[in-house]
Amino acid sequence: VFGYALFEQPRDGANDSTVVVDALSDSGTNAVAGEKLVFIHCAFENLAGLQLDLLAPDKVVLEVATHEGSTEEDIEIGRLALTKIRESGFRLAFGPDVLEPAYASWRPLAAFIKLALAGMPNDQAERVVKLAKSSSHAEVVAEQVDTVEQYELMKRFGVKLFQGRWFAQPSAITDRAVQTSQATIIQLINLVRREADLGDIEELIK
Questions:
Q1: How far apart are CA 141 and CA 120, in angstroms?
Q2: Strands (DSSP E) along the chain, which ranges?
Q3: Would you list the DSSP string of 88-125?
Q4: Within 10 Å of residue 75's Cβ, how many Cβ atoms?
Q5: Which residue among 15, 29, 50, 54 is least crowded, i.e. fewest CB within 10 A of its CB?
Q6: pTM of this structure
Q7: Comparing C-alpha atoms, which of 50, 15, 21, 19 is closest to residue 38?
């Protein structure tokens, strides 16, 4: 096992990356994935709202989706923002869209390029893998691998990282640390209501 991809069904208007990052910042990546990497899917427009400073950058890979209809200016703004995130220690993953000419400036930032196999013809998958290897230093990850045939095919193309139901079914994680965090917030509210000593409030916040 190289790493784990974490997903969360959106609830109460929160996007999946916000919920996952909040949970990880509460419990830490070790509680969820041990010493392995954690891959978190993030829409680019939501990156600015994530509390990335609460995560361990050496343990987290941010999977950033390109935005359809982005202008050259949008892409350049994105490159600058992603460069800062990369410089802070996080690794970045992109989908095959990053191989399009418009996103050439993003490619040097890529540690991983993820290729979803569902519905993709074999010859197209081979072209994408070759293009990824020739135009970037990123490691290709074949995802949605559901059969041994898909695994063997991508292995022949030189792919070494795989994700899909042929290897393991998704499993649920119950993050009890989120409940603990909620209890702490209630304690803080009670301290403020009682006009408690600032030292007590500060200790609880820490």
A1: 15
A2: 3-6, 37-43, 60-65, 91-94, 110-116, 139-143, 161-162
A3: TT-EEEE-GGGGSGGGTTTGGGEEEEEEE-TT--HHHH
A4: 17
A5: 54
A6: 0.76
A7: 21
Please give the Cα distance from 116 to 119 (Å, whole number).
8
pLDDT at residue 87, rounded to an integer: 94
pLDDT per residue over 76-125, tens digit each?
Answer: 999 999 999 999 999 999 999 999 999 999 999 999 999 999 889 999 99
Phi first, then psi: what are they for 71, rounded to 5°? -85, 170
d(CA 189, CA 40): 32
Cβ atoms 10, 16 nearer than 8 A: yes
Tokens matching residue 162 = 């795989």
30: pLDDT strictly greater than 80 = no
pLDDT digits (tens, 9 = 90+) for 166-200: 998 888 766 555 555 666 777 788 788 888 888 88
Phi, psi (deg, nearest 5) at residue 201: -65, -45
DSSP 3-state of 145: coil
User: What whole-number distance in Å separates Cα of residue 63 and Cα of residue 54?
Assistant: 17
For the chain, state the CA radius of gyration: 20
State pLDDT tens for residues 1-17.
999 888 765 554 445 56
